[in-house]
Write a structure and sequence with these properties.
CATH class: Mainly Beta
Oligomer: single chain
Distance between the termini: 52 Å
Helix content: 10-25%
Radius of gyration: 18 Å
Strand content: 35-45%
CATH superfamily: CheA-289, Domain 4
Number of strands: 12
Order of helices and strands: HEEEEEEEHEEEHEEHH
Number of domains: 1
């Protein structure tokens, strides 16, 4: 059965209008991409749509013992169980205060089976491929390793989250698993 949720509908609309703007009688083709934007402690964060499976309202989170604080627990979304991660806490920022207005960003990387919990302030935005990029070396190391790049637009920085890097991070992938030390 095809996905008919809000994100699927938005993806259909996006693909139908991808990169087309009418300018008088002429059609201007502009290369663009879309992402979900949110803030973490004044940082403008972006997760590209390609890495999202679903945006879901927060549902009950069952906590787990002996896991890092950024691993909030487990939750049911649809017919599946997902690990809930507070990305803000994971990168050393102020943890999300989970309320009824909070949302889950369900990542499409099935190896992670993960939903990022975010405060309720989400929006969707289109970015031009020609936006200048900032220097990743100027970003703090705790965040830099989880970014694809930084965009500079109208004196604003947009930090683009690299879900592949999260999937390759031993800390993130092995969340909650006890570390066995050889003696």
């Amino acid at each position: 059965m095809p996905d008919t949720g809000p994100l699927a509908l938005f993806r259909q609309l996006e693909s139908a209008s991808q990169g087309r703007a009418v300018l008088g009688e002429k059609q201007l083709i502009v290369e663009t991409w879309r992402g979900v934007v949110f803030t973490i402690d004044e940082l403008n964060m972006v997760v590209p749509f390609i890495w999202l499976q679903e945006i879901s309202p927060v549902s009950p989170i069952w906590s787990l013992p002996a896991v890092p604080s950024w691993m909030r627990g487990m939750t049911h979304i649809g017919d599946d169980v997902y690990t809930v991660v507070d990305f803000a806490d994971f990168i050393g920022r102020t943890p999300v205060n989970v309320t009824e207005q909070s949302n889950f960003l369900v990542l499409s990387d099935h190896r992670l089976k993960c939903a990022l919990v975010l405060d309720g302030k989400l929006s969707m935005r289109r970015f031009n491929h020609n936006i200048p990029k900032g220097n990743l070396n100027e970003v703090e190391p705790e965040l830099r390793c989880y970014l694809s790049f930084v965009l500079i637009e109208d004196d604003r920085l947009w930090y683009v989250v690299d879900i592949e890097s999260l999937g390759q991070s031993d800390t993130f992938v092995n969340m909650g698993r006890p570390v066995l030390h050889e003696t």
